Amino acid sequence: MKTFLLRVEPLIWLLFGQGILIGTMLLTGWVLVVGILAPLGFFPNGMDYTRALDVASNPVSRLVLFALIALPLWKGAHHLRSLSIDLGGADRDTTVATTLYALAVVGTILAAIAVVRL
Amino acid sequence: MSERQKKTFVITRFDPDTDEVPKTESYEIEVEPYWKILDAINYIKDEVDPSLSHRWSCRMAVCGSCGMMVNGEPRLTCKDRLSGYGDTIEISPLSNFPVIRDLVVEMDGFMDKFNQVKPWIIRAKELAAEDGPMRQSPEELEEFKQFSMCINCMLCYSACPVVANEPEFLGPAAIALGHRYNIDSRDEGAAERNEVFRGEGTVFSCSYANECSEVCPKNVDPAAAVNQAKFNAVIDWATGLVISRDGKE
Amino acid sequence: MARPAHPHAMQPSRPGSTRTAPPQMPPRYPMGGRYRNYTLFDATGLVYLLVGFVALRIVWALGSGREAWQSMLNQLENPLYIAFHVLAFVSVVFVAVRFFSLFPKAQPPRIGPAKPPPAPVITAMLYGVWFGITAVMTFVLIGGNL
Question: What is the pTM of this model?
């Protein structure tokens, strides 16, 4: 597993980097509206079912939603791994890394399914 | 003229023959306002306690010997003015290094890491002396010059949380040096070094705390070098997926 | 007092002739001085991981029909969810600001034949794109039509 992790390291770093860069750029507006403003009762039209489904099922929107879900998972997994090492966890790193990346892989697959079935 | 002032130095001591663990000892001395931290430590060694051990040599921020933790921060003590500190100053050996005695740390692990990055110019085919010098434009020099200013003072290793926890990690100065050769227009060894950079405990182990660059007394900015090296290693890896390297060498 | 570093940190490949005291971590790690922002930056990993999975649930609900969607919207009104998303918003802004300051110098002097623009230009571009994407995203999500 350790050797495998080493081999895919450049790919993971790339996904992690895009998680910070693209993930952050997409999440700012998303978290602001979907997570905060809409639940507080602002702009009820935006979250209307028919309208939301219509906007989300556009091919570009599907791609955006996929990136918005999947990329932050890689940013999250990789940063938690490095936090675990810095807090003294080099010896448990293979287990921690495998678990976190497995979570990100599962999330990525589910994200793909979620946007396809819209 | 200037007035002498009293300051207390709390210095970490460790004698491998008698001490189980390091302890601290306090020295109250009168210092001149123009002194550097190193002047005070030299004064203590010469006038108060000759058993104190520390490394130093050039006194002008070139040799890189006198790195120590000053109030918990890695500093080059010959470059660090006393006037910037309060009445009590804590001095301890560089963090993240095994301690041989008092303020002297074990450097051999640091030296071991350097060889791995092949810090010399690699050519596919050596040039003959008759071919004359390899020319380089000022612009080409500028691309790596900053990364070649390292004095091996080890402050960056002392500040890095990854160095502390991942013994395999090559660390800031060694990677910066490897990267310095990778982007040198005269060098042809980037593929070889990128192979090393994709191994265990190399560029991707860096989590970009940026502490190495914060503490570097020569503005080398090792964090920039390490992260540029990651970038190049990824490009190299991606190109390798498309174009097989066999037959190229 | 400093925490011990990994016992093998900076150990030479061949042991020296005398006993050494074990390496100690920098005393200010993890929450003192500049280390705090670094540790928090890493810790936002947890927030990102959770935000990703929450976003997955939301999109999944949208694909599961009107009732599932309405039930998801009701859940998002729970104060705990709102508090989490406020934390997520702060984290996202914090990550952007720290990362945008570290990103430019991580660009090699040349990428193939191309030379990246100077650092201040890269930073300005990052902020520009960030504000732009956020504006478009917000506009669409509050019900605007492009």
Answer: 0.94
